[in-house]
From TrEMBL:
One protein family per Pfam: SLT
Domain of life: Bacteria
PANTHER family given in the database record: LYSM DOMAIN-CONTAINING GPI-ANCHORED PROTEIN 2, MEMBRANE-BOUND LYTIC MUREIN TRANSGLYCOSYLASE D
Low complexity bias spans: 537-566
Organism: Hymenobacter aquaticus
Residues of the LysM domain: 307-351, 361-405, 599-643, 668-711
Region Disordered: start-end pairs: 434-461, 505-593
Name listed for the protein in its UniProt record: LysM peptidoglycan-binding domain-containing protein
């Protein structure tokens, strides 16, 4: 008993200190200096004491604030709203998502239905995003920004949240606009006084616990699933998950009208690991060139042989740097980030310096992509992409442009654009090129321009030696200037870069190689190369060194040869020409076999799509299109491929060998071995992770040693 009394006596000063927080005579809010009169300070003090009087209730709200404030801060930071507005959510709802006022205002920020829908919040019979902390906080931020454009004063904007834009105007003064100081007295509107009381009461209590009892993490909600099913895969209870996700009404499935996220209560670090693993699977589906799981650490992935982490919903530069174990400066440097850049959910962020080359030859720019996004996708420095493609840093990346990711585009090769209506052909550009012995290179020229640091690494691949000799010869011959932004600018490059071609509409040879010069006239100007250039061995899907076009069409000079072929006279159309094997699209110094008269090729042991393409000097993209193959085909022994375009121009699926086709159609049972993951098993059988989960009724992508999975390989 005596010990209990002594304990209480020791705790009394702490409890008294916790209950009473003195209100200062000067407060600062959103850049405004608020001077409190004696009456104003007394009014705020009374409200502070009332908020903190009952400690269990106050501490419960502090715990909620520690969980929700990081999410609200991220939204406000993105929208450009002062962070101090976060205390208003405690005043409005006490951070209770299901809160509802007598005026039918609902949710964390107490929106009425009309105001919510006007601000982009979804409210219907299935979803009420007023109860979604991220969606409603974003709507509140937009409301603050809109009204502040009228008042130019954050205190008056705060008052308008309660009274509306029109109702708050009588309480404002003409001198309030762009003011730096304001006076707060007992006559100030009670809504403002109550807000200041919440700010004073919670400001010193929130964020002080280094190990808060609960964290909240935002996670993509799978379409068609119910919260109870998601709870099991996220290692949390359905009751706790539903408590923070009241926005999904009647425990129904997640709708598919837009991308939704859920708030997951995290009480165990293992939950974050499970979420990261699942997020990696979701993020990998968004990338054609998928990251690979890091065999040494499940928290990381590998892209281009580099270790990276996947950005989860709610991640910031600070949280990613912390997860990576890096200082902010290093993290920003490794990922070419600036202070104003936003984190992209599902994108890999690197924990080590990116390379100067990608694992693939080319990339076709997608709508909305930038060089920075491509840089993160392939683990290549943005500076290297600009250099290899001879792009000024302020040049906008247009959709369809073919970016060179391993070699520097020669000056004689015009900027090329690929059509975006053939997904399989575009995906073929992003396949990794297997290493091939380089063709014998001719003697190097006597004078050689010293390469910059970005190009210090020698080329690898089929164009290795010859392409390096080609670039050295052309760059040494031309005058090179350096622009203020360090982008290389050449005397002849401006002419070739303005002559744009479509890769799928290769021009035919004309009597003279001409290059279109941007000028007031549209007439092509003939140009003669300064000197013969060595012949190269291009990659299977490189542009043709000897294009064939109509005589009237201007063509680019070839990086591999300076010879031109006169265009033949157009022949009269035949009534019904017999199908003929298509001539090779590419010429090469390496030996090329003629296309068989049947137009078919039987896959031999060890042959890949690229090997077949090189054998007949074809593009992998064409083989994929002609044979209706998947984006990343895996050939089978005995499989029959069409190596000539169909006579009617349609794509025809190549007929596989009968025994192989029957074997591929049969479901197989795969026993999970040591070190295997769902990702690796799906890749092994050329199927998706989602298919494997559906075939085996799995709620997540986790596999166990010895588990037997039913697989239905693709034909």
């Amino acid at each position: 008993m005596k010990r209990l009394v002594l304990t209480l006596l020791c705790l009394l000063p702490l409890l008294a200190a916790a209950q009473s927080v003195a209100v200062p005579s000067d407060l600062y809010f959103a850049g405004l200096h608020l001077r409190l009169t004696d009456g104003g300070r007394a009014a705020v003090q009374q409200k502070v004491d009332a908020i903190r009087r009952y400690q269990p209730s106050f501490q419960a709200r502090v715990n909620l604030a520690d969980a929700y404030f990081p999410i609200i801060d991220r939204v406000f930071q993105t929208e450009g709203v002062p962070q101090e507005f976060r205390y208003l959510v405690l005043q409005e709802s006490g951070l209770q998502g299901e809160a509802q006022s007598i005026h039918d205002a609902v949710g964390y920020w107490q929106f009425k239905r009309e105001s919510a829908t006007e601000l982009g919040v979804v409210v219907n019979d299935v979803v009420d995003e007023r109860k979604h902390i991220v969606a409603s906080s974003r709507a509140a931020a937009r409301y603050f920004l809109r009204n502040n454009n009228t008042f130019h004063n954050w205190v008056n904007t705060l008052l308008s949240y309660n009274l509306g834009l029109t109702g708050a105007k009588p309480y404002t003064l003409p001198t309030d606009a762009n003011a730096t100081e304001m006076e707060i007295s007992e006559q100030t509107h009670t809504y403002v006084l109550t807000f200041l009381a919440h700010k004073v009461a919670f400001e010193t209590a929130c964020g002080q616990n280094p190990k808060p009892p609960m964290l909240l993490a935002e996670f993509p909600a799978a379409t068609g699933q119910q919260l109870s099913a998601l709870a099991a895969s996220l290692q949390t209870s359905p009751e706790e998950l539903a408590k923070h996700n009241r926005w999904l009404l009647n425990d129904g499935p997640v709708p598919s009208d837009k991308a939704y996220t859920i708030l997951v209560p995290v009480t165990d670090p293992l939950q974050l690991t499970a979420m990261a693993v699942q997020q990696k699977t979701a993020a990998a589906g968004q990338l054609l060139h998928e990251p690979k799981p890091d065999p040494q650490n499940a928290e990381f992935v590998q892209v281009n042989g580099l270790r990276a982490i996947i950005a989860l919903p709610g991640d910031t530069k600070e949280s990613l740097a912390q997860r990576a174990g890096l200082k902010m400066r290093k993290f920003m440097q490794f990922n070419d980030l600036f202070a104003f850049d936003n984190i992209v959910v599902g994108q890999p962020y690197f924990v080590q310096k990116k390379k100067d080359k990608a694992a693939v030859e080319y990339h076709v720019a997608l709508p909305g992509e930038s060089v920075a996004i491509v840089s993160q996708k392939y683990g290549v420095r943005a500076k290297s992409i600009w250099s290899k493609n001879r792009m000024p840093r302020n040049e906008e990346l247009r959709a369809g442009r073919i970016l060179w990711l391993q070699h520097t585009r020669p000056k004689e090769v015009a900027i090329e654009y690929a059509k975006s209506d053939n997904a399989a052909a575009l995906a073929a550009f992003e396949r990794s090129t297997p290493p091939v012995a380089a063709a014998p290179a001719p003697a190097k020229p006597a004078k050689k321009k010293e390469k910059a640091k970005d190009e210090a690494e020698p080329y690898t691949g089929t164009t290795a030696a010859a392409s390096r000799i080609l670039e050295d010869a052309t760059e040494a011959a031309d005058t090179v200037a350096v622009s203020p932004d360090n982008a290389l600018v050449t005397q002849t490059d401006s002419a070739t870069d303005d002559h744009m071609e479509n890769l799928n509409e290769l021009p035919q040879a004309a009597p003279k190689p001409t290059v279109r010069i941007p000028a007031t006239t549209d007439k092509p100007v003939a140009q003669t190369p300064k000197k013969p250039l060595p012949t190269t061995a291009p990659v299977a899907d490189e542009p043709s060194p000897e294009p064939v076009a109509a005589a009237s069409a201007p063509v680019r000079t070839s990086p591999a040869t300076t010879k031109t072929t006169p265009a033949p006279a157009p022949a009269a159309p035949a009534a019904a020409p017999a199908p003929q094997p298509q001539p090779p699209l590419y010429t090469s110094s390496a030996s090329v076999e003629p296309v068989p008269a049947s137009g078919l090729h039987t896959v031999q042991k060890g042959e890949t799509l690229y090997a077949v393409a090189r054998k007949y000097a074809l593009r992998p993209a064409d083989l994929i299109a002609w044979n209706n193959l998947p984006a990343s085909p895996s050939l089978r022994l005995g499989q029959v491929l069409r190596v000539a375009a169909p006579a009617d121009g349609t794509t025809v699926a190549a007929a596989p060998a009968p025994t192989e086709a029957l074997a591929a159609a049969e479901p197989v049972k795969h026993t999970v071995a040591t070190g295997e993951s769902m990702y690796g098993i799906a890749r092994k059988y050329n199927v998706s992770i989602k298919q494997v989960m559906e075939w085996n009724n799995k709620a997540d992508s986790n596999v166990k040693l010895g588990e037997v999975l039913v697989i239905k390989p693709t034909k």
